[in-house]
Design goal:
The complex is a heterodimer. Chain A is mainly alpha-helical. In chain A, 74% of the residues lie in helices and 4% in strands.
Amino acid sequence: MDVILSLIIFLPLIGAIMLLFVPRESINTHRGVALVSSLMALVASLVLWGHFNPATDAFQFQEFTEWFQIGTVKIHYFLGVDGISLFLVILTTFITPLAILGSWAIRKHVREYMIFMLVLETGILGVFLSLDLVLFYLFWEIMLIPMYFLIGVWGSKNRVYAAVKFFIYTMAGSLLMLVGILTLFYLHAEQTGIQTFSFLQLRDALAAGELVLPHQAELLLFLAFGLAFAIKVPLFPFHTWLPDAHVEAPTAGSVILAGVLLKMGTYGLLRFCLPLFPNASVELAPWVCTLAIVGIIYGALVAMVQPDVKKLVAYSSVSHLGYVVLGIFAFNLIGAQGATYQMLNHGLSTGALFLLVGMIYDRRHTRLIADFGGLAHRMPVFATFFMIITLSSIGLPGLNGFVGEILILQGAFLDNILYGVLAASGMILSAVYMLWMYQRVFLGKIRHAENEALTDLDLREKLILTPIVIMVVWMGIYSSTFLRPMDRSLDRALAGVQAVRAEDTVLEIREARLEQPIPAHRTEAVPQND
Amino acid sequence: MKELLIWIPALPFIGFLLNGIFGRRIPKKLVHWIACLTTGVSFLLAGIVFFRFIGQPATEFSFQYFTWIQSGAFRAEFGLLLDPLSMVMALVVCGVGFLIHIYSIGYMWHEGGYYRFFAYMNLFMASMLMLVLADNFLLMFVGWEGVGLCSYLLIGFYFEKKSASDAGKKAFIVNRIGDFGFVLGILLIFLNFNALGFPEVFAQVAELPVEAGYGLLTAIGLLLFVGATGKSAQIPLYVWLPDAMEGPTPVSALIHAATMVTAGVYMVTRTYPIYTRAPEALFWVALVGSVTALFAATIGIFQRDIKRVLAYSTVSQLGYMFTALGVMAFSAGIFHLMTHAFFKALLFLGSGSVILALHHEQDMQNMGGLRKYLPVTCWTMWFGTLAIAGVPLFSGFFSKDDILWQAFAAPVPHHLIFYILGTVAALITAFYMFRLMILTFHGRTRYPADKLDHVHESPRTMTTVLSVLALLSLVGGYVGLPAWLGPNVFKHFLDPVFKYLPSEQQAAAAHHHSINQELMVTGIAIAVALLGIIVAWVLYQRRHVTPENESSLGWLHRLIYNKYYVDEIYDATVIHPIQRTSESFLWKVFDVGIIDGIVNGYATLSRALGIFTAQLQNGLLRSYLGWVVVGSLFFVIFILFFWSA
């Protein structure tokens, strides 16, 4: 169990390396190797879950070795998992094999395609498991490359534009993060004399007061990290790369992109921004929450009028991820737990939606809603799966989406009633855009002759969707399986911001008290809040 | 009892899974056996639980099965609550549901998607039973949205019809608007009481005084009531219910008359500790209820589609129930809920029998004189009509009379307004129901003569169900006799539920009114019913007015026939503006133009900069020299003017 995290991260990469030695022609071997190695990563991550101890907030299964040295600065290979990253890892290892299985329609350069898929998985897993900031940054950037090629080579008509936009946009954000990481490093080295990129050491130094960030610096650092994450989420108004990337990406690209990649942004906010920059988080929370709420409503409204199913789902992601960000910045356990749950939900339901859209695209080579209609006649099984996922996506109680949504709303409500009310209106809008789309695609009479000959799902396709539906129902009915292991880690992640909040309240009370009796001493008596 | 109770909703759910997964591959007979057997056994279990329940001294049992959602203090158990209220609801739902399942065998036999129909119906039963048995707000919401989903699926059952899928979507979305309020209510409850379970929340609410003016409880009450107006089709969210008639008729009977639409009534009754302490909220419940009762009744007058008349009638009758709740006559509201379930299910199923016989003809213009062809349907529907019209001795008479009397005598302000609205609505109800019956079964036959040969009575399974419901419509009211006639067993049974009534109100309720007053109210009720009946009889039986002649009333007819243009108003003021703004501004201008424009603008800018600087490297020595000079000059100027410090 000592190296299980490395095993999980690198199993897909090993598969990718093996693929290099498989002859170019044997497509089925490429598929098989990719599928098996991603399934092995899944098994390894389930083993991890089995051995995971939910009773502690510490990072478990830590791996720590010196990796390389630049001058006196040591970079460490430092991994660890806690209740937040555990399920994101499992989500990644769960979705990737399904995405690979959903890529049978790829016939061009299958070997390279599969290699990129596996490298992508390694990159994402690395992001979720790294505890050294440089290592984290490396994985964060590595993952861009396979994604860039997946969109740029196997995408549809406008793929190059979308791939470049995706790459540069997210790159711009992450460069700021790199500056942030280095600044943090130097501030820490300056104040404590210890050179480290370890997230844990930095966090604990901040908590213990050994490292004190000047107010202005903390705000800038928060923005540097936060912008990188906000672009990845994507938080309104940094979302415009998403619809382009989704529309152009091949099915599996969209599945991974929506299912897992976007969560790297929200994960980053929860993992790094809140614990490292609690004062800035609290100070800027109203802005972040406002953007999140605008995203929820705006994303839903724009999704409603999209003529392309994939674009519709892309904009719906903006809306859903708005909920996640809102939950995180509610700064209470209920909201954060809802947000983490919603990351998993969104991964499942939106991943499934892109898989479903891919299945119909493989048959009809169009994604325009207007080209469909009445598909339920020819494809009843497909229509049923689509309905279940639609219901999961709009948060029908009893399915997974509801659990996340209600917790986020309650969390937001506890923080600020207005946030909760505004965000809850997204509940109505999501029903509008999803059901309207469903109606136009599946119901009514068949209006296009091409749709008459459609065949329903085959065994492979059912095999892809069934595990997702099982998870959707399980997570909707028995949420404790997933919520309990998160508890302690989330408490820990929120400790910083909650302390700041509590301090603010104390200050407010003190100020209020001081204001009353003797105004003469007020200026000296009021503690400076920087 | 714990183990027994869970099976009541679980059995139909198993039926849903079986038919949903295997339904396509098994024979049709097996499909309806699965569906009917699961609901039937579930009804049987409800009966057994009932008898065990009345044998117990305790009147409230809360059973916990497992934790559904928990995060910090936010905890929702999967738990069921058994008390007289949920018992009554479970019995009504199971009983009427079972009968309608049986009826559906005959009605749906020749339709495609037989298994789909029964799978959805079973899912509906499971959800509805969850709704009424849940012991906390969140679990109740599962059932609440679950029944909404089934309603959506079943309204759109004939999904190749655009009107059907439109109606389904409309139902779901309008309900979601209501649910928005419901969810906010739940969130507010947790925010203030730190609990979601009914017993926990109500015990805390019971400690609070009756609120003067608007406060927390009023806010919660109003928000929950928004949910109720959606599900129970009250103003302003009633618009989905008439369209819901696109669904197969058994669906209209089960979901859109007898059970689902009464969920709001049940919910308000269940949360009475909140409402009774929030008089302002209660006032709105009564006002919306009584105005809806009258408003919907007027629309019913001129509808031509037999099912639409019944739909508006349902909206109107639900309004009565809310009026009862609004004047704190909770058991009267639930009593009417029960009798209404009997007679309205009967009327819908009867209309279904007519529609089936006439090969899906629903326009009453093409009916008339069908008595001869559909004798059983005709007489059973007369039972339902007499019941809803409030003719003495029929069930509806007792329940409606109870509501009117309670409204008359209620210890709440403005109660006479509610009483008058309700009484006028009773007049119109009697009128439109007799109009419906005469236009359908009596007078001249307007159905094409050449097709009359094919008109015959429905199969035995259907007529048996009609007869059972007719019997219930007759005798169902005797459990709730008025004070001057005998004991009110129903109220007595429900009384333990209302242990948290504020003391002021208990005192007010104990205040006795004279029997004479009560008799007077009853007399007026009978008189208005008779008046409505006589007018309808004169017009439609004696003068042979048909729906087509009615249009001679001109604008008034047009206004009412077009349902006061409410749908059109909603379209023009809400739906179209949102859609148009989203499409032509938010998406095409704001998102693509401005936000993405800025993003791409950066890209273009840096490219232009790149091209510009690339052009500097043109290999011409002369040009390089020029730039060197420019650069040097720049530095010199900079040092001279800005380097002073």
